[in-house]
């Protein structure tokens, strides 16, 4: 007999669970009216690639809550969300959507809807999020959108949307996010934007040929946190720095390509607030180093990300060394000649305070100077990304073993570094030391033992010796470029361990012997370029049998002999084949005429003619 206390407790639990069970009975049960509305919506569509991208939308599947892209309320079963982004649909957006009276999220981006935006959307006042981006709509945004007073977010960065920015958008006073980016709009940004006092995110990047005549409206957006105005001309906006500083919660500001160099008076001498910015982007504005005096009030110890690329800067100010929270400094592609000792000095009067800096890009800046070991020893933190490429920096091969964090990216390419490479980080993910003057062996590769390495480029140096037989560590390696060096000897068997390898470039070296049979395991290869070596033996039949993904196969200027194997004809994707300047004999297989992919020009390389010696 059950204990009475246990029975009472069990009964109470049953009563507690019963409402939940009852609620579950209506989960994912849409009404007939809403299912019919969706089917009517589909009937006005066509798939732009002649395939049914909504196969689950069928009349015999009664529960539309299980249809792809449809979300229902768990309690009521009403359709609340429709996400058809990226379905390549085209045709008419049916007004049957009006029958989805509980729909509050509508995502139709990434399709090919065209014509004007349907005016009935303005009647869908329950919408909270509307995304019509990346379509083929034309004309201006219809006035009916202004009735969506409860809309929380509106994205209308349509591919071909043109016309001026309509002022009635400014009546959507409940908006939290507005995105008009990547359009063909033109004209003045309406100052009535200042009415959108609840905005937290405003994205106007590359909205078209737009300009700002008066930026004061921004000061009314006290809830603004993220502001993107890339490509919007601010050339006439004096004191714009003051306006930015008047927005108390702003933490992300992006003004790339805003013609800031043309502003006569970026800020007034009276500044009554401090910056809250965490991310500041000022790239592509033709700015010179004179800009640092007005950038100063926009920086603080909160700043983590600073993007100054594509300007005319010749150095950095000393105050950057005081930004203790700075994590990312991106300074590439500045056209003025940088005095590297001054740059390093300004980065290092306070470098020890930059304890969070992990991303540094000063590539392509015309730096002509020498880097000493002190540069590598001074970092208070471990770098995850370092790019010094495309300068004229010289100096002995640095010790790259201690200054870098896990999965780091190191790019010293196209400089004048020299000497033997002795140490590298054991956890590096990408290593580019190409086009320098490094010499000596490459046994340092065996120090990389943690298996995250995906990219290695040591080409165009003076490296010598053999490729070490320790490649089994590199299970994730996708690109290995050792071209244009003095490497020699046979390829090691462990090269077959590179199962993710997509590109193997060994051209212009002194490698010899037959190609290892283990390379047949590298089934992800798309490019195999071995020209100008001393490889010998028959052209391996396993190339055609196992490396079916090859697009490029170049074996020219080696010592291969024998006939061309018929198995090469299985390389259906091959677009470049070069077997010239070898010791091959016999006839050219007629099946090579079946390389139909060679008729399609994809790679930016000239297709070499196959010749016989």
Write a concise synopsis of the structure shown:
One of its GO terms (cellular component) is plasma membrane. It comes from Lactuca virosa. The protein has 613 residues and is an alpha/beta fold.
Write structural notes for this entry.
By secondary structure, this protein is α/β, with parallel strands linked by helices. The protein contains seven helices and 39 strands. The strands form five sheets. It has a 22-stranded mixed beta sheet, with no helix packed on it. A ten-stranded parallel beta sheet has the order 21-23-25-27-29-31-33-35-37-39, with no helix packed on it. It has a three-stranded parallel beta sheet with strand order 10-12-14, with no helix packed on it. Helix 3 (240-245) links the parallel strand 15 (226-228) and strand 16 (252-254). The longest helix is centred in the first third of the chain and has 21 residues, at 4-24. The radius of gyration is 31 Å and the shape is flat. Mean pLDDT is 83; it is low at 1-26, 138-146 and 601-613. Keywords: ATP-binding, Cell membrane, Glycoprotein, Leucine-rich repeat, Membrane, Nucleotide-binding, Receptor, Repeat, Signal, Transmembrane, Transmembrane helix. Pfam families: LRR_1, LRR_14, LRRNT_2. Belongs to the RLP family.
């Amino acid at each position: 007999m059950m204990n009475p206390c246990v029975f009472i407790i069990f009964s109470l639990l049953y009563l507690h669970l019963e409402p939940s069970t009852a609620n579950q009975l209506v989960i994912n049960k849409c009404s007939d009216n809403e299912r019919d509305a969706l089917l009517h919506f589909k009937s006005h569509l066509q798939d732009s690639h002649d395939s049914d991208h909504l196969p689950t939308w069928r009349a015999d599947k009664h529960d539309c809550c299980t249809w792809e892209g449809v979300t229902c309320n768990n309690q009521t079963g009403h359709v609340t969300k429709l996400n058809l982004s990226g379905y390549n649909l085209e045709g008419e957006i049916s007004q049957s959507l009006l029958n989805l009276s509980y729909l509050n999220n509508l995502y139709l981006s990434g399709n090919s809807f065209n014509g004007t935006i349907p005016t009935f959307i303005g009647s869908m006042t329950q919408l909270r999020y509307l995304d019509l981006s990346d379509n083929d709509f034309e004309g201006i945004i219809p006035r009916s959108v202004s009735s969506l007073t409860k809309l929380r977010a509106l994205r209308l960065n349509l591919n071909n949307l043109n016309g001026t920015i309509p002022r009635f958008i400014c009546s959507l006073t409940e908006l939290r996010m507005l995105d008009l980016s990547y359009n063909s709009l033109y004209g003045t940004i309406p100052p009535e934007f200042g009415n959108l006092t609840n905005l937290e995110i405003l994205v106007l990047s590359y909205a078209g040929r737009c300009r700002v005549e008066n930026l004061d409206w921004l000061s009314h957006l006290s809830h603004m946190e993220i502001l993107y105005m890339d490509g919007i001309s601010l050339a006439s906006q004096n004191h714009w720095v003051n306006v930015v500083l008047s927005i108390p919660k702003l933490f992300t500001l992006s003004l790339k390509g805003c013609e800031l160099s043309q502003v006569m008076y970026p800020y007034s001498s009276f500044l009554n607030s401090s910056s809250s910015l965490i991310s500041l982007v000022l790239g592509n504005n033709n700015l010179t180093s004179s800009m640092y005096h007005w950038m100063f009030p926009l920086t603080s110890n909160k700043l983590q990300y600073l993007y100054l690329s594509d300007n005319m800067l010749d150095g950095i100010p000393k105050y950057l060394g005081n930004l203790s929270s700075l994590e990312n400094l991106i300074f590439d592609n500045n056209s003025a000649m940088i005095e590297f000792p001054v740059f390093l000095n300004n980065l290092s009067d306070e470098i020890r305070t930059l304890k969070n800096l992990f991303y540094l890009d000063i590539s392509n800046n015309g730096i002509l100077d020498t880097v000493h070991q002190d540069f590598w020893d001074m970092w208070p933190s471990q770098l995850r990304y370092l790019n010094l490429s495309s300068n004229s920096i010289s100096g002995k091969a640095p010790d790259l073993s201690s200054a870098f964090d896990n999965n780091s990216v190191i790019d010293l390419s196209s400089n004048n570094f020299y000497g033997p490479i002795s140490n590298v980080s054991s956890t590096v993910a990408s290593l580019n030391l190409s086009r320098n003057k490094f010499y000596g062996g490459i046994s340092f590769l065996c120090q990389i033992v943690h298996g995250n390495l995906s990219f290695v480029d040591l080409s165009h140096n003076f490296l010598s010796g053999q490729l070490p037989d320790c490649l089994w560590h590199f299970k994730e390696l996708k690109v290995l470029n050792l071209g244009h060096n003095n490497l020699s000897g046979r390829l090691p068997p462990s090269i077959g361990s590179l199962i993710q390898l997509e590109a193997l470039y060994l051209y212009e070296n002194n490698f010899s012997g037959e190609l290892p049979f283990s390379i047949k395991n590298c089934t992800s290869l798309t490019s195999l370029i071995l020209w100008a070596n001393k490889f010998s033996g028959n052209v391996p039949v396993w190339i055609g049998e196992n490396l079916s993904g090859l697009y490029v196969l170049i074996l020219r200027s080696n010592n291969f002999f024998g006939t061309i194997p018929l198995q090469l004809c299985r390389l259906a994707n091959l677009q470049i084949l070069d077997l010239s300047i070898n010791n091959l004999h016999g006839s050219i297989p007629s099946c090579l005429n079946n390389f139909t992919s060679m008729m399609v020009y994809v790679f930016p390389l000239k297709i070499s003619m196959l010749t016989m010696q």
